[in-house]
């Protein structure tokens, strides 16, 4: 029996340009409701044929940001929100999918994500190129602590948690011992070293043909030099 899809209800409060999570809860929704939500948040911006000027917000699925636009007043689509917060609360579902890797495992019924804890806990924090301001948590491997950072809203990695508790539950067991942290750091250093050596050898191989052409030596050169000296004497 396939697992039912999971969505999240996230309540945000904007303070100094940063959306902070007040409360969040998970619930199962029918697939029809999820498809309607996806259609609403992925619909294009529609100004409409009327000539009024209402300030509205729409969710840009490409940039994964809520953006302001001028609504004409009629014949709009569902991707039309009165406030920026309403837009984020409605279309935050895809962002809330990063609440915890455990939720993705429960939804898919697979433990594939648990096989690579390095991706969830050892990867550096990634703000991303987008310009939103989401307060998120990441696991700092060096200090073995969960720390906050500002997430831009797109192109992040798996070391990105909505709650500190989910960060701890994912990474405290796998990376609590100093031996595990040392092993991961050594693996990263070895990878960097091997990559640097590969680049170095490639540069050497590219320089060798130039050196061989510019430093061709022959005994005939010495003979000609000696003969020219003999004539000058």
TrEMBL record:
Gene Ontology terms, MF aspect: serine-type endopeptidase inhibitor activity
Pfam families given in the database record: Kunitz_BPTI
Membrane-traversing stretches: 179-202
CDD domains attached to this UniProt entry: Kunitz_HAI2_1-like, Kunitz_HAI2_2-like
Annotated keywords: Disulfide bond, Membrane, Protease inhibitor, Secreted, Serine protease inhibitor, Transmembrane, Transmembrane helix
Family annotation (SUPFAM superfamilies): BPTI-like
Domain BPTI/Kunitz inhibitor: 41-91, 121-171
PROSITE patterns hit by this protein: BPTI_KUNITZ_1, BPTI_KUNITZ_2
Compartments in which it is found: Secreted
Keyword Transmembrane helix: yes
Listed GO CC annotations: extracellular region
UniProt xrefs under SMART domains: KU
Name assigned to this protein: Serine peptidase inhibitor, Kunitz type 2
Species the sequence originates in: Naja naja
Gene this protein is translated from: SPINT2
């Amino acid at each position: 029996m396939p697992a039912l899809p999971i969505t999240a209800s996230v309540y945000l409060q904007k303070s100094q340009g940063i959306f902070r999570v007040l409360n969040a809860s998970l619930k199962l929704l029918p697939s029809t409701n999820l498809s309607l939500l996806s259609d609403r948040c992925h619909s294009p911006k529609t100004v409409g044929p009327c000539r009024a000027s209402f300030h509205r917000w729409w969710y840009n699925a490409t940039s994964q940001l809520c953006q302001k636009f001028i609504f004409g007043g009629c014949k709009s689509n569902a991707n039309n929100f009165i406030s920026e917060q309403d837009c984020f609360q409605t279309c935050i579902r895809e962002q809330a999918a990063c609440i915890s890797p455990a939720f993705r495992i429960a939804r898919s019924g697979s433990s594939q994500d648990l096989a690579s804890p390095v991706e969830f806990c050892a990867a550096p924090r990634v703000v991303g190129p987008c310009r939103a301001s989401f307060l998120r948590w990441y696991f700092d491997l060096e200090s073995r602590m969960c720390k906050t950072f500002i997430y831009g809203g797109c192109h992040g990695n798996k070391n990105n948690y909505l709650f500190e508790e989910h960060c701890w539950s994912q990474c405290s067991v796998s990376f609590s011992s100093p031996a595990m942290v040392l092993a991961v750091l050594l693996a990263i250093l070895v990878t960097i070293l091997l990559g640097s050596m590969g680049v170095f050898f490639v540069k050497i191989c590219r320089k060798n043909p130039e050196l061989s052409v510019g430093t061709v030596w022959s005994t005939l050169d010495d003979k000609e030099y000696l003969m020219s000296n003999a004539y000058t004497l």
